[in-house]
Fold this sequence. Notes:
Number of helices: 5
Largest sheet: 22 strands, antiparallel, barrel
Radius of gyration: 25 Å
Structural class: mainly beta
Distance between the termini: 17 Å
Amino acid sequence: MSLFLFVRNVSAQILDDSTKNIYGPTTTRYILEEDLYNIKGKPHSLDTSLTNAHLYDYLYGSNPHQNLGLIGTPLNPIYYTPPQTIGRNLGINIFDAYAYDPSGINYYNTKSPFSKLRYVQGSRGQQILEADFARNVNPRWNLGVDFRRVASVKQVGSTVARDPQASGYAAAVYTRYSTKNQRYQLLFNYTHLHQTNNEFGGILNSDSVRIQDLTNYRVLDGQLNSGVTRERRNNFHLYHQYGILKDSVLQIFHIADYQYRDNRYQDLAMAGDSFYFNLKVIPRNSSSMTDRTDFNLFENKIGLKGQIKRFNYKAYFRAKQFTYEQITTDTIKSKYDYKEDFLGGELAYVFKDTSVLSFSGQKYVRGRDYYLKAYYTSKFLSGGFYRINYSPTLVQSNYIGNFFSWNNPNFDNTTTDNLWLDLNLRVGKLLRINPGVRYTGIKNYIYFNESFVPAQENSNIKLYMASMNFFLRLGTFNITERFIYTKYDGAPVLNVPEVYSHTRAYFQTRAFHKAAVLQFGLDAFWRSTYYANGYMPIIEQYYLNNSVPVKNYMLVDLFLDVRVKRANVFVKISNLLQGVGSSTSPFRKTYYTTPGYPGLPRSFDFGIMWMFFD
C-alpha cells in the first residue's frame, strides 16, 4: 500500500495545476480480453455510477449465493449453473468469487496515471480494501496492479476480541502491448489468491432454540474449535494475436494458462470437537489431520479468427495437461495425470442494427464431452439454447482424506439443456421492464449427498424459471425489482427456493449546489423457505440437505449513497428490522443462509470508492 501511495504522489508532483484538471473518467478507458477475442472495437468507460455502491458482500450478483453468514467465507450459488467449459475441472469452487478472473482483467489505456481506492468497514468486523493502479509507459504499452483484501470477524465461537473468521488476499499484475499498426496485440497477467476460513462447523444443535432470542451470537459456541480451510492459487495467463491480413480478415491467436492450486483442510487439535463425533465416521487419525489437494494445469488454445463483412468466425485447437494429487495426514497419497484435447469453433453474424446471431461448439477429441450453443441478442430481445455434456469433476471422481475416501470410475457424464428468452421493454426514461423465462433439463446430475459423498441421479431433472426485472422512476422517487419464480420437477437432489425477490425503493436527488448526487432508500431481500445446501468443511463442498429447512426471512437494509466529484461514499444499516417481529415473523432475530450458520446481525457499514487521475 505504501508503494501504491508513493507512486501516486510522485506522479501528482510531476503535473502542474494547469494539467491536473485535464484528466478524468473520460480520458481513461479499458478493454477486456473478450473484446480482442471477439473483435469488438470500442473500449469501455469507467463506471462512476452510484448503482449498487452499498452492495459489497458477494451474495447478490446475477446468481444469488449462500455463504456461512459472513463475508470471506465459502460461497455457493443458489441456482444451478451449467459449466462453461468441457473436460475435467477440479471441482473446488468455494473461493472463486474472491479471486481475480485471469480472463476478466481490465487492461487500461490511460492519458495519466490512474488509481482507484475502495474501502468498506462494518461494525461487526467485516472489511474490504481494494487498491488499483495503472499507467501507460507509452501510447502502446500499459502496466497495472490490483490488490484486494477481504476479512471478517467471528460472530459464533469467538474466544478473543476480533477473533478472525475469514481472511483473504488477492492480487493481479497485468500488462497490455500493441505494435504501431495494432496487428500484434498482447495481454498478460499474473493473479494470486490466498484465502483462509477458520471453521466453526455451525452452531451446536442444543443452541438452535436459544439463538432465536439473541441478536448477538458471540456467547454461542461452534462445533469446531481449530479447523482451518485454506486455498492458495497462482495463475499466469497470456493472450496474444497477430493480424495475418489487414482489417481483421484473418488473425491467429494463442491463449496460454499455467495454474497451481493448493487446497487444504487442517485441524491439529481434533479431540473433543462434537463436529467430528457427529460424523459417525472413523478417521485415519483421530488427534490431528491435514487433507491437501494439489492441482497443476497447463493449457493452450490456438486458432484462427477474423471478420469478413458482417460475419465473425473462429476455429481453434485446445489442449490441457494437468495433475491432480491428494495427500492426507498419514502420508497416504493419490496422484493422477491427465491430457485432454479439444476442437472448437464459432460463427456469428452482426446485423446492421447491431443484433447478433451466433452458433458455437466444442468437442473433446478422445472423449464424450461437447457443447453446442446458439443465441440471438438485440436491443429488445435475447434468447438462446445451450447444451453441454461434461465430465465429473476430479473431486467427484477420486478423493482420499482422513475421514472420507471414494473412487467413482462408473460416473457417467452429465448432460444439460438450457433455453432462455428475455425481453427488454422501455417507456422513455420512466419505465423499464425485463421479463424472462428459462428452462433447464439435467440428466445424470452429480451432487454430494447427505452422507457427504458424491452420488449420481440418473433420472431427468427439470427447472422452470420465470423472472422479472423492472425499474420505475417517478420524479426523484425510484423503484427497482428483481423477482425469480422457480418450479422444480425431479428427484429431491437439487433444492432451490420457489421465490426470490430483491426490491429497492429510493430517492435520488442533487444537493450542495448540485455538487453531489444522493441516493437514500431501502433494500429488501426475500426468499421463500427451502432446504438450502449444507456445508462440509473437511471436503470444502456444499452438500444436499433434505432435513433442515432454511426459513423465509425479510432482510432490510437502509442506505445512503453519495457521489461527490470522483468519490462515491455510502453508509448503511444492514438487517435494519432484526428482532422487530416474533420468532415466526419475517423480521425475527435470527436468519440463516446455510443450515447451522446464522446470518450477520444488525450492522452499521461505511464505504468509500475514490478515483485519481494524476
